[in-house]
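User: Reviewer 2 asked us to show a designed sequence for the structure in our supplementary figure. I'm pasting the C-alpha cells here. Could you produce the per-position amino acids so we can include them in the response letter?
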C-alpha cells in the first residue's frame, strides 16, 4: 500500500499576474466595468456598481481595488462624513468611498462616468450661488 509521503507532488508556477482576480468575484466585476465603459464611450450612458451589495470572498475586494488602482485624480469631500473619490487607472472609471461622521464605511461604488455625479454642482446650489454672488456684487456692498 502506497503512503501519502510517497506520492510525488510537483508545484508549477502560474502565469497569472494576479491569480486572486481570476478566481473571484473581481473578474466578473472587471468585465462589467469594461462593458459599462464601452456604453459610456458609445452612448454616454453612466453606470454605478454598488460594491457593498456584492458578496466578496476573502481577498476579493482587495484584489479588485488593486486591479483598478488609482489614477491621476483624487478628491476628498467633507459632507456628513468623509467621501473619497479617485479616478482609477482607467479614465472614466471612478472609485467612490463614503463614510459617515463616525468614520464607518456606508458605501463603496464604482462609477463609470466622465465626472462623478457627487462632484457635479446641483441646480439648487447653482441657484443659491447666483443669489449670493448677485448680492455680493450689488454696488451697496462695495466700499470704495
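Assistant: Here is a per-position design you can include in the supplement:
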Amino acid at each position: 500500500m502506497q503512503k501519502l509521503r510517497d506520492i510525488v507532488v510537483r508545484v508549477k508556477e502560474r502565469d497569472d499576474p494576479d491569480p486572486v482576480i481570476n478566481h473571484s468575484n473581481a473578474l466578473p466585476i472587471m468585465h462589467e466595468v469594461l462593458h459599462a465603459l464601452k456604453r459610456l464611450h458609445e452612448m454616454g450612458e453612466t453606470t454605478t456598481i454598488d460594491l457593498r451589495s456584492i458578496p466578496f470572498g476573502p481577498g476579493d475586494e482587495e484584489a479588485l481595488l488593486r486591479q483598478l488602482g488609482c489614477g491621476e485624480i483624487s478628491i476628498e469631500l467633507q459632507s456628513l462624513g468623509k467621501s473619497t473619490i479617485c479616478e482609477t487607472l482607467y479614465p472614466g472609471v471612478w472609485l467612490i468611498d463614503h463614510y459617515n461622521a463616525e468614520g464607518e464605511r456606508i458605501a463603496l461604488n464604482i462609477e463609470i462616468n466622465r465626472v462623478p455625479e457627487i462632484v457635479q454642482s446641483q441646480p439648487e446650489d447653482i441657484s443659491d450661488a447666483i443669489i449670493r454672488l448677485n448680492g455680493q456684487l450689488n454696488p451697496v456692498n462695495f466700499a470704495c
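For the response letter, you might also mention the following. The chain has one domain: 21-134. The chain has a mean pLDDT of 87.
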